[in-house]
Amino acid sequence: MARNTQKHRSPRPQGRLIGYARVSTDEQTTEAQEIELRAADCDLIVLEHGSGASRLRPALSKLLREISAGDTLIVVRLDRLARSVSHLLEVIEELAAKGAHFRSLRDPIDTSTPQGMFSLQVLGAVAQLERALISERTKAGIEAAKAKGRLSGNPGLRERRPEALAKMTAIQKAAYGARIQASAHQWLPTVRKMRPDHTWDDIARLLKQRGLNWTPERLRRAVKWLVSEHMADANLMSKSPPRIAEDRLMTLVAGIHSSNPNLTLREIASHLERLHERTPRGGSKWAPSSVKNLIDRARRTGLIESSKTDNSSGHF
Fold first, then answer.
1. What residues sit in the active site (predicted)?
2. Which residues have C-beta within 8 Å of that of residue 7, sequence separation ≥ 6?
3. Which one of 3, 4, 48, 137 is separated from 188 by 20 to 30 angstroms, measured CA to CA?
4. Residues catalogued as catalytic
């Protein structure tokens, strides 16, 4: 019987098995979790000390940024990873977007199997129901308070008490930091590649071409926060040198090309004309050769990665 069970077991997904162990305080130890994760054949175990009520977990954020397609993130229990069902679903969605899997050793969740995905869908339905119930209870509470002549909201905030204002500021900062860490893997590599040689305007423009809606000021503020938390190099905030117009065009062309590598040189030239961008010599008509020169420069500076299958390299 044991032999047949082994024979029909689901095959291990291609990629690494990465364990994540967390305890809430420095006085606690991750040893028990490590033992279970090693028994599950984890190739790597990431350790973290942090409260379960907080999403500010640098080790987990770094793991999610660096995990690759085919890898599987493994925890001993769900509460070691997420603070709520909604948080758990966010993490799993982020893993799925990168082609990675998730498994909990003590819970029936393994996103590489149909049964595990079914359990996840049940959790999602429970989370949706929970949100609906909370919303209904909140509305009912507000209506009851109004009927009794009570004002809604925090009395401390209404009265501008310093301790309440300080607490609210801390909560807002924590929430901001959590949002920045959750999305950093999408834009921070580009910032690291371009700063400080390029301006925040150039980087924001390139990110927008890739579908990320950043303003230069919001981007600078986000990077400043990461630097203050020692999650990014302080050199990213250094002042940019003056840039000539051709460098701005190079960044713009790199962004257009990166957002759709299948565009031909002529199609990129037409796009620049629709944007009313002047050529490096000040003309209004773009030639494919001018676009190619800018793309070649972008490759040399690292803004565009070289690819043998690049359609824009030779099609006019």
1. 24
2. none
3. 48
4. 24
